[in-house]
């Protein structure tokens, strides 16, 4: 797992997963379509990515589909990095 | 024709998709007044059936109360049917002011402004008082109308894990650079029946210089020793800056809502909140009936006390029967089934047993948390509650879930 995926995965687990939740989250785990993250709550993830990687993610690209897995999130961020 | 065959087909296929996902909302017709026992036509065209209603927001049993109905008649007879105006042009009668004052006194707030619904109050309040320099920090399970209102507002927003005070504190720290921090929560969460820990939340708001808004729609009239709401329950009436609530649930059940709170905030809503400015005044019959409701709940705690007893009897009966209910003390009792099909099948079988309840599943509740939500009412008698518990015992036995917890039910049915 590359560094960005590790960092994003750690953030997702800390921000969205309850301690008693036993399901393992991997970079390929669906987050939004499975209900782990809802579209209302994904705003904090977007803010984290923008601050951490110094990018601006346009709303029309920061869609629930693009945010559905750590893999797809990292693809989106990389496309916007200089 | 603008409504082409192709357009019709596209809409029809979207409806088919909703049906295929099992999310289609069937039509259900009630042929009687709202009460503990109702006459239902379901599915459409089916013979009428008398059932016990355990899914209404009629917490205090006031929806068809004779005094409330009489007050509505008086409003109709003395002030007419409609106002044909928004509030600020020629739509405000003295009774609108009277209701606002009575609600302020009942909730312990400085001022109140009526809206056509609490959905409208929640849609309008954020945009009226906050701007892009501010931040809203919301519990993740707040009502959809609050989510919509927050999204309509230019303020930044963030969320915290449901009722997780450590996470809220972290978010309050994170947003210290904002001009205003507004923490948003339901008082009682409609799907879980959870009580937001307002005492801890108010303490955090004090520590981090934040305001707090509570949507008390599922609490006003019956939570707290005298039914003032969740803020009374936790002894923090003075610590709450804004309450939004409805007259469409415990407080009569017709329609209408309000923003109640600090004087300047309410005044800004009066000046700027779009659902207030651009929709009609609450009808006089509803205003008069709501005034009567506030009088009824102010003069005696009899109805909320009965609701409390009914809730305790139901929760105890269900626990003894071996159903997996979410612990708590509110009249919203989720019977946890985890599997959507199981929730639907059991709700259907309960209807056959004469108990009207509904199953809920993702996306209305989190994935893997399907349930039947039971709502108690002061209109219920112990006999009704015992019949409901007996039906749950019978249907639960059929599906082999009595005595099973979360893990065992998921092992048996999946989630």
Descriptive overview:
- With 82 residues, chain A is mainly alpha-helical.
- Helices cover 44% and strands 0% of the residues of chain A.
- Chain A has helices spanning 3-16, 43-53, 70-80.
- The longest helix of chain A is centred in the N-terminal third of the chain and has 14 residues, at 3-16.
- Chain B is 43% helix and 16% strand.
- Chain B is built from 16 helices and 14 strands.
- A 7-stranded mixed sheet of chain B has the order 4-10-9-8-7-5-6, sandwiched between helices. A 4-stranded mixed sheet of chain B has the order 1-2-3-12.
- In chain B, strand 7, helix 8 and strand 8 form a beta-alpha-beta unit.
- In chain B, helix 5 crosses helix 10 (263-272).
- The mean pLDDT of chain B is 97.
Concise summary:
The complex is a heterodimer of chains A (82) and B (415). Chain A has 3 helices and no strands. Chain A is an all-alpha fold and 82 residues long.
